[in-house]
Amino acid sequence: MVAEPDTPAHLALYEHELCGFCRHVRHAIDASGLEVESRNILREPGHREDLIAGGGRGMVPCLRIEHRDGQVDWLYESADIIAYLERLAAR
User: Where does the GST N-terminal domain start and stop, copy by copy (predicted)?
Assistant: First the structure.
């Protein structure tokens, strides 16, 4: 789990359209108004390779959080991602 959110430099959601949990996260992103890049691991297999190399697992959804200091966190589990996004949007 990621600590209280700072203002990240970049957010990217690793996802695919067949994943119901991904759809829940995508709805939360849409509701939040936050800018989050979509990285579909089925349409672009290179994204799946990046996900495994960076996050350690090929599971989606996964939110890649790039901080302004260059640190990168990988947040799995849709409920955790949605909670993080809600805290970030409330700031």
Answer: 13-90
Q: What is the pLDDT of residue 20?
A: 97
Name the strand (E) or helix (H) holding 80: helix 78-90
d(CA 37, CA 11): 6
Q: Where on the phi/psi map is residue 57: left (φ > 0), alpha (ψ -120 to 50), or beta?
A: beta
**Gyration radius (Cα) of the chain, Å:** 12
Kindly report the pTM of this predicted structure. Answer: 0.92
Give the pLDDT confidence of 31-67 residue by residue, as tens digits: 999 999 999 999 999 999 999 999 999 999 999 999 9
Q: Are residues 86 and 32 in contact, defined by beta-carbon separation less than 8 angstroms?
A: yes
- Are 17 and 24 in contact by the 8 Å Cβ rule? The answer is no
Class in CATH terms, 10-90: alpha beta
For CA atoms 80, 91, 24, 52, the dihedral sign is negative
Which amino acid would we find at residue 84? Y
